[in-house]
Amino acid sequence: MAPKTPIKNEPVDLSKQKGCTPERNPITPVKLTDRPQPDPWTPTANLKMLVSAASPDMRDREKKKELFRPIENSEQCDTHDSLQYDMVDDCTIDEFEKQRPSRKQKSLGLLCQKFLARYPSYPLSTEKTTISLDEVASILGVERRRIYDIVNVLESLHLVSRVAKNQYCWHGRHNLRQTLKTLQEEGELQYGELMTFFHHKEQDLEYKFGERKKETIPDSQDRSLLDFSEPDCTSASANSRKDKSLRIMSQKFVMLFLVSKTKIVTLDIAAKILIEETQDTVDHSKFKTKVRRLYDIANVLTSLGLIKKVHVTEERGRKPAFKWIGPVEFPGKTDEPTGHSPTSNPLPRTQRGACAPYQICATGKQRFTRHASFNGAQPCEGTKRRVSSEPNSPHQERQACIVNSDEYCSKMINLAAVCRQKIEEDTGNKVCSAETILNSARNSSISSPLSPLPVLGDSDFCVNPLPQAVFPVVQADVSSLSLTNGIGSQPLHPSTPAASKTENGKPTLLPNQPFLCFPSSSLFMLCSGLQENNLRETLPITGEVGNRRAETQAPVPPATCQKRCSHKCASPSATADDEEPAAKKQNMEQSDVPLSLVVPKKPFESPKAEPTPRSGCMSAVHLEDFHLDLASPAAPEAVDKESTKLLDSQEQEKQSQNKDLDEHSPGKEHISKENASQPFLPQYLYVQPTAGVSSFNFLLSANQAAGAISLAASQVPSLSVPCVVVPSAALASFPLVCSPTITSPLSPVPDGSFSAPTSVNFSMSGLASTTPVFIGTTAVVAPKVSPTPSMDPQQPAHPSLHLSPVLARSCGAVKLDSPVCVGHPVTLLKLQQPSSAPLTPKSIRPACHEAFFKTPGSLGDPVAWKKNEGNQTRNASSVQRRLEISSTSAD
DNA sequence: TAATCCCGCCAGCGG
DNA sequence: CCGCTGGCGGGATTA
């Protein structure tokens, strides 16, 4: 009789009423509440009690008629317990109803978040955290069985490892990247082609799939690689069972994502693939079961911030799917060993593989990633066992590295051009709606500069409720924008009154001021005056990029391409981590989402840059890709001459290492991040807001023309790249202000507006103190900065100083006078914060919120933050086009 | 109705 | 035999 889902959860309410029923007291609503309860009660016990307490019938009745209290009397017939219950308190019922844990509240995803919240994403190497399943189960108020589900998935990613019966060891995400890399490599071997097919044509997929699967590498192989289970458990018997294990499935599922071009995998496809591997026959029931399991896994992965749910619309209709939002690039990728731009990347191969921390590696396909402490690319096998035995201090990693390559520069330039165009457009036509842009984009990249924008419309996932959907854009009036353009000459003065102040971290654009303020924790890419040529070229280039990609990776029909694009657009891969819903994310970022900056994807290929406006999918690429792609090889030249300025800054928040932070409400973070990632971003600016984050990275490109700034990337010493990467100061989120006052002696700007030297200031306000970063670029200076240096010890502790060693250095060297100034005047920051300029939508919010939400143990109301996400997502304003700023949503 | 996925039965396994 | 694991699929919830 008892409904399967009896009241268990309800006890929560009961607790309140304890007084009424002594009996009830014992019932503690553990589950719902995050607060761990020491009470001896096991979840089951609670359950039972509850069940006994209330009969399902009653509940139903109650549900149906909330108001129908009178029933109480009659209720007696049922269980006396129930009766008592009712009698006890009417209120109870209501609460009952209210609190009645909905299925969602009991979801595995939520449970997983709670679980994760208990452990630091990046535990200190010293601390060994052991997890007792029983303990956790009781604390979380669930059956142990559920914990197994979570742990199995976590184990597949090496976040935990089983040490003994009922005992697991928490490793955190230190080695997550490595693990993912390994999975990716393995995945490529196994599913590479397969996935290609899928993307190509779904239908064919299956078809092909059948063929393929046989060809695929024997399971044994992958097993070995992937097998995380204890080494010992090689026994056949054990394996048999383990093969089906959630663990394995989880790994395979992840592989599919990593191999997928679009990073989107539909459940049915995944199920089919997974089934195929195991068995040739796919019966319906099996399929269903597989899907169920995949949901379980997906829930955990979602909690980890690695994937998010999306919908893919295909010929057949709308299908549930998941999109990978975790790290995508892994240094030293096998497939394209040479992927690194040869020219730009001087680093010895070995190093690259190793990817020293701070160093960014670009892989052929992937963008670059910051690598934590992995030592070189290891053969899959080798890595396998490493689990996180050695904790690295990812925290330190945080700096950003600059990838230098001409290509890179060119790309940047292109981006800038695009941005500029956009801006111009906006300026010209305030009205342009995103849609319009989108459309144009779809139609042809060429036609409008905007085209590069990702096409959102295509797939549902674009629309996702996830934060990504909308960027809060800084709203700048056209006028303001124009100001920006014209201003170029103004050196950045921190003191400038104009400096927008961001009160709440809202980005502000002061009218007359050349400065823009963004909420802290955002990543920006700014572009200023580009020449027309560039712009034009850019578009085609962009398109090409897309194409190129397609070519490279797999032939994709235009339609497909578009989809892909949209997909990619939808979520900026770069931000992947951002998404993490779970509080954890903050920590993760350090390692996971290191500052991924731009990496020139294909240095070699750059030649292709010919402008061919073909496919509409230009920006489809993940953010990372995006950046890379955008830069067209050809661009560099133009850039130099054109004296375009590009400013790209990225900021990533690093969540405080503090565990406390972990607790933050992730939701907001994502949101903001998501927003940032929005399609637009790619074009001009990419903002990754991290909630309260502390560190962020910047990539700035100053004007190139005259004296392009040459950054000395460790790798590319002499590059004269207009870009500067600034490592973020770790802890504090700080506002960044950039005012590139570039005069563009070089740039003949056709567009009056931009061509002129433009000065743009961004200020990002972090939650708390923000260290203001002031960056001013004036034309020619080329301070050399080593990208890696972010860690610079030299830097004063001060946040402002923190900014980046690079910046600091540059600043020191250059100073205002110098073309590029990186200033850090605190004063500015302060000014900014108070900002009133509300140009930006309210949506933008400072990281502060997070703090708000963070509640240690309790995730707070997950629901609540989810809601936020949704809301935020939606807010996009035309303004966005110009600048996309992610912000945490308002509450 | 379809999509999700919670729940807990029950088998495999190791001690 | 017992308890830990975890595959599996019924069927409740949600969308």
From TrEMBL:
Its main location: nucleus. Pfam families: WHD_E2F_TDP. Residues 1-44, 328-351, 374-397, 487-506, 546-616, 636-674, 863-891 are annotated as: Disordered. One of its GO terms (molecular function) is RNA polymerase II cis-regulatory region sequence-specific DNA binding. Keywords: Activator, Cell cycle, DNA-binding, Nucleus, Repressor, Transcription, Transcription regulation. Signal peptide: none annotated. InterPro entries: E2F, E2F_WHTH_DNA-bd_dom, WH-like_DNA-bd_sf, WH_DNA-bd_sf. Residues 870-891 have a biased composition (Polar residues). It is found in: Nucleus. PANTHER family: TRANSCRIPTION FACTOR E2F (PTHR12081), TRANSCRIPTION FACTOR E2F7 (PTHR12081:SF25). Belongs to the E2F/DP family. This is Transcription factor E2F7.
